[in-house]
Write a structure and sequence with these properties.
alpha/beta; 6-stranded mixed beta sheet; 12 strands; 2 domains
Length: 511
């Protein structure tokens, strides 16, 4: 059993993105090791507890970086910060323990090997869906995101989503464990692996072709990465210097766009809260920015804190906001972040927990509600995803269903330092582009900024902790993937499969 725990942990550490060595296919060893634990455990309790341990080690090796923002920006001593990822991973590891328990029960009740593989796929998919919902959701280590560096391997996400592809990977890993027990499992596993790769190859080589009216509007896009030191960002004395730096980089981006004129509408994107002041207030700093947009005749997306009056209790509500300026320098719309980060943007259960927010310069943010894509005209509507939101498939789904032709993600990954987190965040962003068949433009404060095409290929990318400008051409399109069409049905199919298998196991136990 110790070897199985080691297989799971090493598979996660090598398979998920990290700054040292990533072997994407190694991620298959995470569910493979967990399946072996379930099959070999002598009791249900042993299966769950050993799986929990394996999941805890796997998550801890990938999410160690949680201690960095807690210590560096939260003001906690390392002795208090270091246990934070360990405690969080205890919760995440419980999902893996439940997966092992399910595999143990399926094997103990002597389900057919092919059914066990199907059960593994459905259970893993359900596990990731559950992790995106409980305790405000944290689906960071989605198994399929490990394959993001290999675009040909993730195209099936356009059919069944990232969670569904994770389930197929778990089913394949389960088949590897049961390879010798059934010829049917051999055929199904080989067919699944070949089918995923063949579909990926066909899709990346232009099949199926989009309808002529779905090709969309060409846009010239510039991403600006300011590389502002997080420890200085919220100091009032540094506000003017921040604006100076972004305007300087913005002018460089305009020069790059002018060097290759195409006649297409121009869009410039600055990161999350790149402006550490209230942009909606009429100040000299705001005037400099609106003049910049007007002088260069471009649409400009920028992040800034915002506020509004909450009519429910006549209080002032603070928001993590993205503004869209038009070519006249006017605010044509804004988006308030809907899914906030616990302890980063608000303090949950503050009456009972002694831990506050990481940034105390401003109060708790409140989420936006029922917002539409930002319309920049020229047939282009922007589906905004601020930072953490890009890891949730349902939010990207909502943007596209509301009419977004381009996904725009703005983030401030300075919180993470030079850890695995920025690379993992990029991998998760890539999965949203493939799921929805949309270009994704991602601008961050310190990296990694990127342009990602609908097939998950990164066409432009920055490094970490560098002031950088990226330019390129993207398309805003109204075409939709199969996953977008079946999103709601797919969830209910997974629920039904898990309930069906649970009922089957209960029936066999009674017999």
């Amino acid at each position: 059993m110790t070897a199985c725990v080691a297989i799971s942990a090493l598979g996660a550490w090598l398979g998920f993105a990290n700054p040292y060595l990533q072997v994407p296919a190694a991620a298959l060893f995470l569910p493979l090791g967990l399946c072996l634990i379930g099959f070999r455990a002598e009791s249900a309790k042993t299966a769950f507890m050993t799986g929990w341990l394996a999941g805890w080690l796997a998550c801890l090796g990938c999410l160690y970086w949680v201690a960095f923002p807690v210590q560096h920006y939260g003001g906690l001593n390392w002795l208090l910060a270091a246990p934070c990822p360990a405690l969080m991973c205890l919760v995440l590891g419980a999902y893996h323990g439940l997966f092992c328990l399910a595999m143990h029960l399926a094997a103990r009740k002597k389900l057919a090997p092919a059914l066990i593989c199907l059960f593994a796929a459905a259970t893993w998919t359900f596990m990731e869906m559950l992790s995106a919902t409980l305790f405000s959701g944290f689906p960071w280590l989605s198994l399929s995101s490990s394959l993001a560096p290999w675009p040909v391997a993730v195209q099936a996400a356009s059919l069944v989503g990232a969670f569904g592809l994770s389930g197929l990977m778990a089913g394949l890993a389960c088949a590897m464990c049961l390879w010798r027990r059934s010829n049917l499992v051999k055929v199904l596993a080989a067919g699944l692996a070949a089918g995923l790769l063949c579909f990926g190859w066909l899709r990346m080589n232009g099949w199926p072709q989009p309808a002529p009216d779905a090709r969309g509007r060409l846009l010239d896009v510039a991403l600006v990465q300011g590389d502002i030191d997080q420890s200085l960002k919220w100091k009032r004395s540094y506000q003017s210097a921040t604006v100076d730096k972004y305007l300087g980089l913005g002018r460089r981006a305009v020069t790059e766009l002018d060097s290759e004129p195409s006649g297409a509408p121009r869009l410039m994107i600055w990161p999350e809260t790149c402006l550490p002041f209230y942009f909606q207030d009429d100040t000299d700093l705001r005037l400099r920015l609106t003049d910049f947009a007007r002088e260069n005749r471009l649409a400009l997306v920028l992040g800034s804190p915002g506020y509004s009056l909450d009519t429910r209790d006549n209080s002032v509500a603070l928001h993590n906001r993205a503004y869209l300026l038009d070519g006249l320098g006017l605010i044509s719309g804004w988006y308030d972040k809907e899914h906030l980060v616990p302890f980063g943007e608000y303090a949950p259960l503050k009456e009972f927990l002694p831990i506050g927010k990481l940034v105390e310069d401003i109060g708790d943010f409140r989420p936006g509600r029922a917002q539409r894509p930002l319309d920049m005209g020229a047939g282009a509507r922007l589906g905004m995803l601020i930072c953490y939101e890009v890891i949730f498939p349902d939010l990207a789904q909502e943007r596209v269903r509301s009419g977004a032709g381009l996904l725009v993600s703005i983030s401030n990954d300075a919180w993470f330092g030079e850890t695995s987190a920025p690379l993992q965040h990029l991998s998760l962003s890539i999965m949203r582009a493939v799921e929805q068949g949309r270009w994704l433009a991602r601008a961050t404060n310190t990296g990694i900024s990127a342009l990602v095409d609908p097939l998950g290929r990164v066409t432009a990318r920055s490094g970490l902790f560098e002031a950088r400008v990226l330019t390129g051409k993207v398309r805003s399109t109204m075409d939709k993937t199969a996953f977008n069409h079946i999103f709601d049905v797919f969830k209910w199919v997974i629920y039904a499969l898990v309930l069906l298998f649970a009922g089957l196991l209960a029936l066999r136990r009674r017999r």
